[in-house]
Protein 1
Amino acid sequence: MKATARAHTNIALIKYWGKREEALILPTNNSLSLTLDGFYTTTTVDFREALSQDVFMLNDEAVTGEAYQRVTKFLDLIRGLSGKTDLYANVHSINEVPTAAGFASSASGFAALAAAGAKAIGLNLSDQELSRLTRQGSGSACRSIYGGFAEWEMGTRQDGSDSYAVPIASKEHWDIRVAAVVLSSTMKKVSSRAGMKRTVETSPFYPGWIESIPNDLNGIKAGIQEKDFEKVGAIAEANCLKMHATTLGANPPFTYWHDTTLRVMHTVQEMRANGIPAYFTIDAGPNVKVLYLPEDEARVEETLRNIAGVTDVRLSKAGSGITYL
Ligand code: DP6
């Protein structure tokens, strides 16, 4: 009863920002992402009769506290689906998602855990069922079941049965690249979970965010099919700015941006003024991800590395979906 799976993290081009139901993780809007090959988690789940509780090792260290609770709660879902509710597991995860790169490891982490856990306990899930299960660990993780571009359909049902990601275009469809720009920041972080909750509950800008989503989604999906980089980049950048604008309206107000975040944003816009098509997007943290085309890689990397306050730049191509090892 043992299985190993690998999942890659993803970067949202149309952001998931807000839940309509917290326990099941049901979002208030559809979102769309690109899976990245540079950052991933490999997880082995081993269910054993002899265990009296779950054990979770991350990068060879035992995990306790809240992170451990999230994993055991998620394993409870897998146990419940299989009917084998009295089995505990050894979970061993290796993260190739440097926290410093500003990617939440929860997306690749829960996708790999769901895939390995379901397989180990003998569930034979379709991609759609696996995405729906993964969603309940961390929302953005449900998109990491697929490679390339994926859309998380929010669904309408209260039981969450129609809320899962679907593939939009494979990584072979279009070679677009992402630079993860790492900043030397020690800012205290508002988690994405807490940040989106506060925004939904208190920001007067939130309804405007929700209203603007269908147009952004239609535009970006057309842009992906047409491989229109300017269109996709411009929509992704504007969507990110709108998401971050909602946090400024929250009570108490907050922002994930740092002075260096703004410097990187300005530099990307300057690159465009100088004829290099590059666009930024930012998740729930100060680090910036920059979208660019392969032919501009050297110039984009050099420009980003030269910004004061930038400590590292990590380049990535589009990645694949779940793989079993
Ligand atoms: C800004 O998926 O981390 O990265 O569902 O509460 O675990 P939970 O939140 P999470 O939120 C991700 C928010 C985001 C945008 C995105 O990835 O779509």
Note: The chain has two domains: 2-173, 177-316.
Protein 2
Amino acid sequence: MTTHSLLLLPGDGIGPEIMASAGEVIDWFNRRAGGKLFTTETDLVGGAAYDAHGAAISEETMQKALAADAVLFGAVGGPKWDDVPYDVRPEAGLLRLRKDLQLFANLRPAICYAALADASSLKKELVEGLDILIVRELTGGVYFGEPKEIRDLGNGQKRAVDTQVYDTFEIERIARVAFDLARTRRNKVTSSEKRNVMKSGVLWKEVVERVREADYPDVELEHMLADNCGMQLVRRPKQFDVIVCDNLFGDMLSDVAAMLTGSLGMLPSASLGAPDPTTGRRKALYEPVHGSAPDITGTGRANPIAMIASFAMALRYSFGLVEEADLLDKAIATALDSGARTADIAPDGADTVGTEEMTAAIIAALDNLA
Ligand code: NAI
Ligand code: MG
């Protein structure tokens, strides 16, 4: 049996509570495999690491992250660290991981579970069965481009400058991720940019088209201006399979898509790096989209689904355990079908369960489905 190593970084707030749920799921897969399918090591990140070492992630933890097959990350931050210096604030731990692992591809699925189709802000028939994947470039673009500054113009005016920069190789590698993923899904990629007003959009379209022609002629490709893409996501979201876009548009489009399907507590994500030239395996970090939820920390009410679904993404994208990933996704859907609802996904006045009961419902579904 191939053993996969996971570094667990629970972080702050509800992070440790939902990571405990992921731990139970990992244990379940180990029991089912009758051995060590996964080994885990747990370490500090965020405010917890700052309290222990004065840094949001220690060098030792960084080394472990670089060596692990995948990192499972909870959430970081909270009011306790609001006055911590900028460079060592809890979020710096996550930024450091993204940078040092070179996680350039951010994957955000938007899946509408049948049991929750009524909870969407859109009409049920528009979102029922929705399953789309947004692939966002994460390490380039206007968030990082230089110059980036506020200039004093000396006449009582200031000028703020952000710079959108993309090189061919950055567009190429994110396009490849999108096309590869589309092949495992419904074989369609929508590439979204604003070539009508941005030079980076012109290059983006050109490069994505070239990558398809050279290596992915079997995958359907369409180009859609990013503003239209935002409209189409709320008008007719099921027309999409994989959407690929730059850092800025991806930030917005992925949040729009996410809200079609319900609560923050449901949303997983993956961030992938380049494939290792010898093993082919990508560095990867899996985390819920939500933060540390200080308002419900310690109450036992956190929804563990975003964290558990993030582990399902690790099964699928890091370990090639597609059957196991499908099984876990199905178990989440089954737990929801059985009526289990944490407070964030329950209609007002409905009965709710806590983190532990929701986790138990998912484990029970795994037992029944396996
Ligand atoms: P948040 O995502 O922590 O919470 C927003 C709202 O959603 C809260 O009412 C919270 O209770 C609820 N919520 C979030 N996750 C939930 C879950 N699993 N189950 C049930 N309800 C859930 O965002 P907020 O409040 O803006 O930030 C809180 C802290 O988290 C801040 O320090 C922020 O910087 C940090 N943060 C960290 C992120 C990360 O680690 N990647 C991402 C976003 C925020
Ligand atoms: Mg965002």
Note: Residues 251, 255 surround magnesium ion (ligand 2) (CB under 6 Å).
